[in-house]
Design brief:
Blueprint lengths: L1 H8 L3 H17 L5 H13 L5 H35 L4 H21 L7 H10 L4 H26 L3 H37 L1
Helix pairs in contact: 2-3, 2-4, 3-7, 3-8, 4-6, 4-7, 5-6, 5-7
Length: about 200
């Protein structure tokens, strides 16, 4: 990480902005890419005067939104058929249950998607499969990306040389937020199943 930071310090600001945009975009498509870490590094570069805070916020937010919407539109057009044929051939009914859940709660989940690091790609895919309205998806995704990236850049900027503290916090937060999200979903579907059985 330190070597990456030293490397970026010697790049031209234009190239760094491009890297911030690309990493923010690609981490939605390929979740293992540490997009948030790169944003925090960008915040440190803002703090030392190499980058402008407005442009750093703009390129990271634009990249995040475009990455989310790319998966959304691909899933909107091809989603269900690709999932059932390539990945979940025997789980068509389960996929449909998730679709119904997204049709009911999807916009709220999109509003929270940036705060659920490990689930961002899944959220965009099921938002597309569930045929949520693209305009509303874009608005909610923009709000979510805007708040999240502002938080990372502002806190990273304020921490300055201590920016690694934020990286450590983010690793723990991402881990436990994903576990919490999965538990909430599991409890929700368990309650639905128990309620349904009781009615019978």
């Amino acid at each position: 990480m330190d070597s990456a930071l030293r490397w970026m310090v010697h790049l031209s600001p234009l190239v760094v902005y491009l890297l911030l945009f690309v990493s923010s975009y690609m981490e939605n498509i390929f979740p293992p890419i540490p997009g948030d870490t790169v944003v925090v590094i960008g915040a440190y570069l803002v703090g030392i005067g190499k980058l402008n805070i407005f442009f750093a916020f703009f390129v990271t937010t634009l990249g995040s939104i475009m990455g989310f919407m790319t998966l959304f539109f691909l899933s909107f057009v091809y989603g269900t058929s690709i999932l059932e044929k390539k990945f979940f051939r025997n789980y068509g009914s389960s996929i449909r249950k998730v679709e119904l859940w997204f049709e009911k709660y999807g916009y709220g989940v999109i509003l929270l998607n940036r705060f659920l690091s490990g689930a961002r790609s899944v959220i965009s895919i099921f938002a597309g499969i569930s045929k949520l309205k693209p305009k509303k998806v874009f608005i909610y995704a923009t709000i979510s990306c805007g708040f999240w990236n502002f938080f990372l850049i502002y806190i990273g900027y304020k921490l300055g040389e201590n920016w690694k503290v934020l990286i450590g916090f983010m690793k723990r937060y991402n881990k436990y937020s994903l576990i919490g999200f999965i538990l909430i979903l599991a409890i929700y579907f368990l309650v639905k199943i128990l309620f349904k059985n009781n009615k019978k």
